[in-house]
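USER: If only I could read backbone structure tokens as easily as an amino acid sequence. It would mean a lot if you studied the pair and described how this chain folds. Here is the record:
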Amino acid sequence: MDDEVKKIVIVSDGTGKTARRLMDAVLAQYSDHVLFSVVDTFQQVRTKERVDSVLKRIDDRYLVIFSIISDDLRNYFHNLLEEAGILHLNVLEPMLNTMSKFLGVHPEYKPGLLQIIDDRYYRRIDAIGYTVEHDDGRGYRTEEAELVLVGLSRSCKTPISMYIACNFGMKVVNIPIVPNERMKEQLLRRLSVVDSKIIFGMLMQPDELARAREERAQLLFPDDHGKGELHEYHDVREIRNELRFVRKLYADENWKSIDVTKRAIEEIAEEILRELKPTDFRFRDMP
């Protein structure tokens, strides 16, 4: 039975995932009765010495599927496989040739670029999940945060958090501030596990914050029932007191503050990311 199994070897200058995905897509078109096995995957094959070592471990009983971007190394490997009579397929070559004709430019021939893109993609997905999990004071992994936003209710913490997570792959925690000493101590204990340099306090002009809160109250109680209980929530005099509380807190803790009044989310995010040191913002180049 073992003699009937078609043996495949994957050789890549990266992880081999590209070649494996393409191979799986093609093999799915064949009968279930055709037996094959990927007996080995050789990764990070980027030198002639590494190619030579791979060839010592295979012969003409194998199909070699490879994805090597370097023109010189690709040709070197192809010629050796031809001389050895080993059936092989370079999965990148047809697409590179066609794309070069279509785009009118040559590729960069840099190995591992797709893996970099994949890594950024999965980091961004992870960041989005983390940010959702830690929205509005929730979550238990604050120590993993790359950015922390704090501020009064309705001061744009959630949309800013999600924009930065989705577009820049950062793990963002946002926490509402309740203006009393007991809640302040709880907040400070929770934030003791992160660097104060990544903590930003949101501010908003009192009239605008009152308007935002009143709109929220109307959504919660459209028929006026219960609105009276939320009167202090959007009373501009109470809001001024709350703002005095948070301004003092930001100053005492040496947290950077951002006024978000009537500003686009993109503009606010850009200011926050500018304030962060490049070493803190690892994915600033991500589109």
